[in-house]
Amino acid sequence: MSAAPRSRARAASRPAAASAAAGSGPGSPAGSAAGSGSRSAAASASRSASRRAPARPPTPVSRVLRLCLHALLLGLLALAAGRAVTGSAPGAGWTVAVCALLAGVYAAGVATPAVGRSARAAAVWLAALGAVWAALLALSPEGLWIAFPLYFLELHLLRLRWGLAAVVATAGAAIGGFLAHSGAVTPGAFLGPLLGGSVAVATVLGYQALYRESERRRELIEELIATRAELAAAERGAGILAERERLAREIHDTLAQGLSSIQLLLRAAERTLPEDAPAAEHIARAREAAQDNLAEARRFVRALTPPDLEHGSLAGALERLCSGVPGPRVRFSVSGTPRELPTPYEVALLRIAQSALANVVRHARAGRAEITLTFMDASVTLDVVDDGRGFDPAAAAPSGEGGFGLPAMRARAETLGGLFTVESDPGQGTAVAVTLPLPVEAP
Length: 443
Known about the structure:
alpha+beta; disordered N terminus
């Protein structure tokens, strides 16, 4: 390599749960054995997820658990009313009436969509349920059983801290009602309501952890699917660009060069013929046809040019490339008199510059880099220099991360008869240079 890239290298080296709760409504599976879609989970763990994603409809399992909660509460009410009637308890008629009223209040809340969406509406509904349940608890000791489904409703519809407070109040009311009816203080009077409340709280908190993990996995799966689609689109785009470049190179190297040779041969043959030769007119027409087809082939090559080169020259594409590189400051300069290059030359130099800058960003840890495009009489040179950590080119192993890499850059240059060199030392930056000989223009 010339001393210029090396000197530049050394100089540079110095200087969702909330949406599930809203969709399931009161008495959803969160309030039952699984606590699915609990309002406490929506408020404390997944409020941000609900803002990001729209509400999802309840799953079949959620519907089944919700129906189980409805059946549990209505069954307990029927049991309390039946025990009052069959046991000839005092005030049995009032007990049946209060059970019916409690069932009606519960059904009204289940049928009201605002209860599942508004914390205030849910609190009003729970207060109404609690007032009717307190009346039932005063009339019949069997009202104690209703506390267990109420635990899940409170944890489902209220924020976590308010839900816990409501569970404690409900357990206290159940204990008080049992003591008022039994008249004797026993450990069971305290253990039953407290144990039921503890089970409900543990169930809901355990569900919250499972729900958060499920949401994280769902988001990861969605990100994986989106990333896979983006990767497939990127691979298709890269394949299309590679095929366009290959076709442009093949057309230029075979068809265009062949037509150019035919035109030169016909021109030479035309010069050797006498002016009045009968074949002169046919040779002239053949030469014109070859010239027209050569122009058409060159239009094909330009149409297959990479998008970076479609709207400007190679220098413009390299300047845009430098301005869009993240990380190190990259400066672009042109030396010599710019001239129009064949499309394969422009494509090769642009791809080599892209690959070299990718290596600078990914591996070099450089603060500055410089790209210089030099036009000379018989060649064009591209230098890419950085002030990064450098490496030992002799010990560099091929990378398995994809991309062009040094071997591919060298192959591109050698395909066009050029010279590719790399100079680098640990701590001294890296200088990459490629020199392509310019083709001799046809007369």
